[in-house]
Amino acid sequence: MFEIAQYFEEVKHRYRLSSDYALADKLGIAQPEANLIRRGLKVPKPELCIKVARLLDKNPVELLLIAQKDKAPAQAKEYWTLALTAVDVMLHVPKNPRYIPKKVEAIGRELRQLESQTLTYEGAAANAEAVRLMETAERSVDAIMERWNIWKKGEALYPSYLLANQAAVRRNVILRRLLILSQAQMQDPSLVADAIQIMDDQHRAGIKIYYAFREELSRSPAFHRLEQDFKKYGAAEEIN
Known about the structure:
Number of domains: 2
C-alpha cells in the first residue's frame, strides 16, 4: 500500500465525502482512479498531488516527495525517506527561532565551564588523561545537547523534535512534554512569545505539549518526587 493514500483519506474525512464518487468529483478525476489511489494501489500524478496538498493546506513539496518515494524501487526508498526528513526540517524550522540561539549560547557557557575544570598532566599520564578527558567531554556534550533539546546534524543545529521525535510520532509513539514557567517569567513578553513559539512548533510536530506554573507545581508531591529523580540521575537542576 502506498503512503500517499493517507492524504486522500484525509480529504474524504475533512470534506465529509461519503464515497469514492464524491472524492473523484472533488478532485476532478474518474471514480476508478480515486478508488485505486485511496486504497494505496496507484501513485497519483504530480498535478493531483498539488491539488490535494492545497485542499489540505499542506506544502505540495511534501506530497510530491512522498509520491516519488512510493514509486521508487525498494533499494532507493531509504534515500527518499532521508530526503523527506530533510525537507520536513526545512519546512518546519521556525522563521524566527529566537530560543535556539539562546540555547546554543547556554551550551557554549557549559562547555567553557567544563574546559575550565580541566587538570594538567605530564608524560605518560598526559596521554591517558587526554583519552579520559575526551570520553568525559563526549558524554558531557551529549548530555548538554539532550538537556537543551538540540541535536547536531552535519553543521546545523535543529530542535530534536524535528528529527527523532517526528519519526517516533509517525510510529504512533505518544510524546508528552511539560513546559514549566514561573509567574515572574510570565511578566516578560519576549519570553512568553518564545514559549508560545516552542509550543506551536512541538504541537505541529505531533507532540502533546502542556504548560504549568512552577509556583503551583511546588505544592505537588508528585512533582517533587519527579524532581528528586532527575537530580538523582544527574540531570539538570532545572527540569525544562
